[in-house]
Amino acid sequence: MKTYTYTEKKDTRSGFGAGLAELGRTNPDVVALCADLIGSLKMNEFIKENPERFFQIGIAEANMMGIAAGLTIGGKIPFTGTFANFSTGRVYDQIRQSIAYSGKNVKICASHAGLTLGEDGATHQILEDIGMMKMLPGMTVINPCDFNQTKAATVAIAEHQGPVYLRFGRPSVPIFTPADQKFEIGKAIKFTEGTDVTIIATGHLVWEALEASKALNEQGISAEVINIHTIKPLDETAILESVSKTGCVVTAEEHNIIGGLGESVARVLATNTPAPQEFIGTNDTFGESGTPAQLMDKYGLNSAAIIEKAQAVIKRK
Amino acid sequence: MSNIKHLEDICTQVRRDILRQVHKVNSGHPGGSLGCTEFFVALYNEIMERKDSFDMDGIGEDLFFLSNGHISPVYYSVLARAGYFPVEELNTFRLIDSRLQGHPTTHEGLPGIRIASGSLGQGMSVAIGAAQAKKLNNDDTIVYSLHGDGELQEGQNWEAIMYAAAKKVDNLISTVDLNGQQIDGSTDDVLPMGSIKGKFEAFGWTVLEIEEGNNIEAVISGMANAKAKTGKGKPVCVLLKTIMGNGVDFMMHTHAWHGKAPNDEQLAIGLEQNPETLGDY
Predict the structure, then answer these.
(1) Nearest Cβ partner for B132 among A67, A102, A104
(2) Mean pLDDT for chain A?
(3) In Å, how far is B248's CA from the nearest CA of chain A?
C-alpha cells in the first residue's frame, strides 16, 4: 500500500497567504479585504506587493461582505479574509443575499476553522460553517488538507466564476501533498487503494486518515483513503466507485457531524447504493479551550478514532 | 434639463404603474414607492449618466443601488419606462416565473438590477464596493444608493457609513428617504434615531437636504448639487424628505400603506388622481 510521509509542517493559512501572494502577481483583477486580521490570515505579502488592491475594513465583517459583493461589479475578484466564525455565522444573511443570491464572484476565505483554533475556545471554534455554506445555492465549499493543497486551492478559485467558501486552519500540520499538484475543484483525490473500507476525509483529518490506514493495514485491513477537498459540488462518482468496492465508509471532518461532509456522503449513498457509514466529527456540541491535540483527542477527531470507526463499520457490512 | 412637464408626466405614469402592480397581485409596497417616485424619475431621466444597454460591470456609467428593496414597484416602473425592459413586463410583478420578484434580484437576470436587496441594511456596503472598484478602474463615474430612514436602524449601515468616510469614498451619493414611517408606526414611535443629519456629519460625510422630496425640480437641483460635491474627499449623503404614499391622497402621511395593496375601489380612486400620461402597460 502507498504510504505518505512528511518532512515539514506548516499551517494551512500560510498556504492561503502564499496562494494569495501568487495571485497578486498573476491576476490583476484579484483584490483582498480583511477585517483586522491581516497577520492571522497571512495576507502580508499580498498587501506589501499590492497595497492599492487591499482593503482594510476594520472589525466590520458584514460591511466587508457587502463591499466584496460591490467590488465584483466592475470586474474585481475579491478575496475576503477573517476567521471562519466571522466569515460565516456572523454574516450569513449578507452572504446569502448580497453574494450567493446575487451570484457575485466573491471568495470567502476563512481561517481558524474548527477545534484546532485551540485555546481561544468555543466562541471562535466554528463547527457549523460547512453546513451553513453548503446549504447556500451556488456556493462552492472547499476545505483543503495541507499547505500545498490550500495554496493550490487559493489559486484555483480565482479562475472559478461564482462564490466560493474556502476553509482552512491555524495549526501547523504535515505537508504531504505535492507542491505541483493541480487543484481541480470538485475532484476527489484517492490517496490509497483499498478493498475493506473507504475513509473519506477533508481538511486536517486527511492526514489522520492516512495514519489510520497505515495502522489498519498492519491489522490486515485494507483501507481506501479518499480526500474530498470540495464538499460542494461533491464528487459523487468517486464516492460511489469506492464504496461499491469496499462496501462501507467512514467519513472524517473537523466539523459537526450534523451538516457536514459526512451527511453529504450519506445522502449520496442513500440515494444510490446504501452502505454502512460511521462518522468522525463533533457530535452536536460546542468546543472548548485546550491545545489543538488535546481537543482533537477529546472530541475523537484523530487517527485512533478513525481506526475504531473503521473496525466498527466493517462489522456492519 | 428635460421639460419639467414631461418629467412630471413620467411621475404620474409611474404612480399609476405602482398602484396597478400591487393591486393586481394584492401585495407589495406602494407607500414608500409612491414617496420616492420623483427621486427615481429624476435619477434615471436627468441625473445619472447611463448607457442605453445594460451590463453588470457598468464601467463608464453611473450606477444605482436600491438598499430598501421593498419599494421595487417604483424601481421596476422607472427601469421599464427608461427602456431597460418592456413595460408590459410590469404585468408579471410578483407572479410565478417572473423576473420582477417581490424584491429586486439579479437572480432572474432583470436588466438594470445589480444586486439583490430586501433584507435591509446591506445596500450601502455594496455601493461602497462598487465605488471603490470604480476608483481602481480609474472610472470617474458615480455610484448612487437609496436607503429608507427606518432601514438605518440596521447596524451594518453604520459600519458602512464609518468606512466610507474613513476611506474617502467620495464618488458615492447615498440618499436616505426621510418619510418618518416604518412598518410598526412612525420612526419616532418605533425607534427614535435622533438627528440623522448630525450622525452622518459626525461620521464625516457631506450632508445635503432636499426639503421637497416630492417636487421634481427640487429633487433635480438637490441631486445636481450633491453631484457637484463628489470628488472632494468625502462621501455625500442626501436627506430626501418625502411623503409616504405621495400622490394618492388616502395613502399619504401614514405608514398604513407601507406594505398593503389597494382594493378595486381604492385603485380606481388612485388612478383617477393620476391620469394616464405615457400609456398604461
Answers:
(1) A67
(2) 98
(3) 32
Neighbours of B6 (CB within 10 A): 12
- Contact B170/B233 with Cβ under 8 angstroms? yes
Task: Report which of A283, A288, A17, A9 is spatially closest to residue A166, judged by C-alpha positions.
Answer: A17
Q: At A216, which helix (H) or strand (E)?
A: helix A205-218
Phi, psi torsion values for A43, nearest 5 degrees = -95, 0
Q: Which strand (E) or helix (H) includes residue A34?
A: strand A30-34
- Residue A108 C-alpha, separation from nearest chain B C-alpha, in angstroms: 15
Asked if A34 contacts A81 with a C-beta cutoff of 8 angstroms, the reply is yes
Q: Give chain B positions within 8 Å (CB) of A103.
A: 106-107
Interface probe with B: pick from A52, A64, A97, most Cβ of B within 10 Å: A97
Residues of chain A with Cβ-Cβ distance to B163 below 8 Å are: 57-58, 60, 63, 67
Confidence of residue B79 (pLDDT cuts 50, 70, 90): very high
Nearest to A133 by CA among A261, A227, A299: A261
| pLDDT band, very low/low/confident/very high, at A1 (cuts 50, 70, 90) | confident
What percent of chain B is helix, strand and coil (3-state, nearest 5)?
45, 10, 45
Distances (CA, A) of A206 to A146, A177, A226: 9, 11, 8
Partners of A33 in the β-ladder: A55, A80
Q: Among residues A108, A88, A189, A81, which one has the least CA distance to residue A145?
A: A189
**Min distance B153 CA to chain A CA atoms (Å):** 15
CA distances from A161 to A17, B26, B257 (A): 21, 38, 41
Q: Of B68, B67, B75, give the one whose Cα is nearest residue B34.
A: B75
How are beta strands A189-190 and A223-227 bridged, if at all?
antiparallel
Q: Is A241 a catalytic residue?
A: no
pLDDT exceeding 70 applies to what percent of chain B?
A: 99
Task: Please give the ipTM for the structure prediction.
Answer: 0.97
Q: Which residues of B touch A94 (CB under 8 A)?
A: 122, 125, 156
- Indicate which residue of A22, A61, A211, A278 is catalytic: A61
Chain A residues within 8 angstroms (CB to CB) of chain B? 31, 52-53, 55, 57-58, 60, 62-76, 78, 93-94, 96-98, 101-104
Q: What are the pLDDT digits (tens) for A86-99?
A: 999 999 999 999 99
